[in-house]
Design a protein that fits this description.
The chain is an alpha+beta fold. It contains four helices and twelve strands.
């Protein structure tokens, strides 16, 4: 674990060396993404991340990027905020195809996905989804691997929970039609 001083500038945070602990920048502090620093995602989380990456990347060809655990420069309560979603989708309209830098995502992505990990609650994810929407994210998916559901948050409607063969689609993700069944079956969580 990296020892950091209590308050950092955004530049100091972005200059921190890589470590085994994933940090997010919240209220001027480098906070571990997971409440228990020793906790790490387990099989359900990892296989679901992989499934989402494969399925969304296939859809996103020619449209944009799907990236796992890419930090994003946003604002929260009028302060710099750099969360690390489990996955993001950002279109080439927002971040051109020829952009190639090793840094935090410099634009607001269309979609962020958070997968509930051991030690996290759905309530934690609702709070984070609210901050994402306030920061300008169009869509937030909260994935629950235990109940095998995906709850979709938008700023224009109440959250909607999808299960089984229910098709998830949205105008922000043109031509994407995906179901929780597709995702969890591809992850090896449905036999």
């Amino acid at each position: 674990m990296i020892k950091v001083k209590n308050k950092l500038t955004i530049e100091e945070f972005l200059a921190l060396p890589e470590s085994d602990t994933i940090y997010e920048f919240v209220n001027g502090e480098a906070l571990p993404k997971y409440k228990n620093e020793q906790m790490s995602p387990k099989f359900f989380h990892g296989s679901t991340t992989g499934s989402l990456f494969i399925l969304l990347s296939k859809w996103a060809q020619e449209k944009g990027r799907v990236v796992v655990e890419w930090s994003v420069k946003l604002t929260r309560n009028q302060q710099d905020w750099i969360p690390v979603p489990d996955l993001i989708y950002v279109s080439y309209q927002r971040l051109p195809i020829d952009w190639l830098k090793d840094e935090a995502c410099p634009v607001t992505p269309e979609l962020v996905i958070e997968i509930i990990s051991p030690g996290q609650t759905f309530g934690d994810m609702i709070e984070k989804a609210t901050y994402y929407l306030q920061a300008g994210i169009c869509l937030v998916w909260v994935v629950d691997t235990i109940s095998q559901t995906i709850t979709v948050f938008t700023s224009s409607s109440l959250p909607n929970t999808f299960r089984g063969q229910q098709i998830i689609s949205h105008e922000v993700l043109p031509d994407l039609q995906i179901t929780p069944y597709d995702i969890f079956k591809n992850a090896g969580l449905i036999r």
